[in-house]
Amino acid sequence: MSLLPVIALVGRPNVGKSTLFNIMTRSRDALVADFPGLTRDRKYGRVKNLDRPCLVVDTSGIADAAQGIESVSRKQVQVALEEADLVLFMVDARQGLSASDQVIADDLRKLAKPVILVINKTDGLDAAVVGVDFYALGLGEPLKIAASHGRGVAELMEQVALRLPAEAAGAESEEDEKSIAIAIVGRPNVGKSTLVNRLLGEERVIVFDQPGTTRDSIYIPFERDGKRYTLIDTAGVRRRSRIFETVEKFSVVKALQAIERAHVVIYLIDASEAITDQDAHLLGLVLEAGRALIIGLNKWDGLSAEQRERVKRQVDIKLSFLEFAEKRPISALHGSGVGKLFDVVSELYGSAMLDMSTPVLTHILKEATSAHQPPMVGARRIKLKYAHQGGRNPPVVVIHGSQTDALPLDYKRFLTNYYREKLGLSGTPLRLVFKSPVNPFQGLKNKLPGRQQTKKRERLVRQKKPKK
Questions:
Q1: What's the rounded Cα separation, in Å, for the pair 207 and 213?
Q2: Both 263 and 378 in a single domain?
Q3: What is the pLDDT of residue 398?
Q4: Is 366 domain-assigned?
Q5: Are 437 and 402 in contact (CB under 8 A)?
Q6: Which segment of 37-51, 127-141, 192-206, 252-266 scores lowest on mean pLDDT?
Q7: Mean pLDDT of 222-247
């Protein structure tokens, strides 16, 4: 599996980067308001409106040429450019070309990476003359969009798909395909490298009681009981406000790429500390990637009974969206609970890579609809006819029927839980995809071919003629 490509959004403040970020990720993760400087640091998300999985990074804007050269914002943009495979350079059609645009364009030319110049806020402006001055940046033909209204975004994403680096064919060897990839993820100093060493039974990763020791993702292949594994020790992901060194900023992308390459993710939480919003955000990205998940509650042996109960309540409340995940109290330092992780990993890997036959999936669907019928839409009941497998890691079930787009969320949740129980899935998310047949004559009611249209008119004339 090739690494996730990275798309960086750069430009001056208030040119619409966060709005485009939200459209690309189909979320509201980036704050949007009509004043500059709202994005203080980089924001990461998975692109949802491309067929190919990739990451998008929203950066803070450079305020002006004088301040921008030495400012923290300028350093933020520089880091985003270094880690990007493709850059979307956004400018404002209403404000026109500025000195800051020229500065950023100069940096982009030096970097020699693919760049798409995006002129935003073109709604209501004359298409023939808007953005003419931006040709002076020397970055090729610009694309004109209105991000706040979604206009031009589809055409932009088509160009993005064409400009991304090609996926590496045969990126995985036969041995890689037979190996179970396990990514160890979590905030700094929660014991990730200690857990890797404990799992390996030897000192393979440097461990210090200092956050940020691991600067990059480390891939460690090994065998245990005749099974092949690859452990991926990722750099800790800090809160964005506490990231100062440029090299540490790359760890966010590396961690997300490691999640994408893994079959099973062990997300480590320091049970002696509170579960943070950063934990919930990163676990949300694990869920989006569809990876089987073990939440390791580390340093469990040092907690009192009262503290353990508090941690369990926190997990239930803050991580309620991860009901499927396996929660395991462990001690990476002393080894308690660690030996059982391999059994859990094997079980989760089996669930994530499960082969599901069409007859079995269809039979389960019939059982589910018999136990709890789909709701009515108007005077007609939604019909679910058959199901088949649509993918693995995560397992995907494609369900065909009529009016499936009208299925309510609670019924989809019922079907998901029913399939999970019947298939015996553990620790992995299950995705259901619903499809309805497309009516080829839809929208053609008044667009009949000429001869049919003539016959219809003649029939109507005959019906209107008075009888003699």
A1: 7
A2: no
A3: 96
A4: yes
A5: yes
A6: 37-51
A7: 66
Rounded Cα–Cα distance for residues 412 and 332 (Å): 38
Residues 259, 327: one domain? yes
CB-CB neighbours of 136 under 10 Å: 11
Asked whether residue 128 falls in the same domain as residue 73, the answer is yes
Instruction: Supply the Cα-derived Rg of the chain in whole angstroms.
Output: 27
Read off the pLDDT of residues 182-204 as tens digits, 9 standing for 90 and up: 999 988 888 888 898 888 886 65
Question: Cα-flanking dihedrals φ and ψ of residue 102, to 5°?
Answer: -65, -40
Residue spans of alpha helices (H) in 262-398: 277-289, 305-318, 341-352, 358-371
How high is the mean pLDDT of the chain? 81
Rounded to whole angstroms, how far apart are CA atoms 260 and 254? 10
Pair (404, 312) in one structural domain = no
Task: Say if 95 falls within a structural domain.
Answer: yes
- 258 within 8 A of 208, measured Cβ to Cβ: no
Please state at what angle helix 17-25 crosses helix 153-163, rounded to 10 degrees: 80
> Does 136 have pLDDT greater than 70?
yes
Neighbours of 40 (CB within 10 A): 13
- The amino acid occupying position 254 is K
Q: In terms of pLDDT, which residue wins out, 165 or 75?
A: 165
User: What CATH number is associated with residue 38?
Assistant: 3.40.50.300
Residue 447 falls inside a structural domain: no
For 162-175, write each residue's pLDDT tens digit. Answer: 999 887 544 444 44
Residue for token digits 């053609």? 444
Domain end marker among 327, 352, 377 = 352
| Eight-class DSSP state of 146 | B
Could you tell me the pTM of the whole model? 0.70
CA angle 113, 118, 120 (to 5 degrees): 155
**Residue 400 pLDDT greater than 90, yes or no:** yes
Which tokens go with 199? 């799992």
Question: Given the DSSP bridges, would you call strands 227-233 and 218-224 parallel, antiparallel or unpaired?
Answer: antiparallel
Backbone region of residue 157 per phi and psi (left: phi > 0; alpha: psi in -120 to 50; beta: other values): alpha
Note the Cα 218 to chain centre separation in Å: 22
Q: Is the pLDDT assigned to residue 340 strictly greater than 50?
A: yes
- Give the domain extent around 194: 175-352
The total number of structural domains in the chain stands at 3
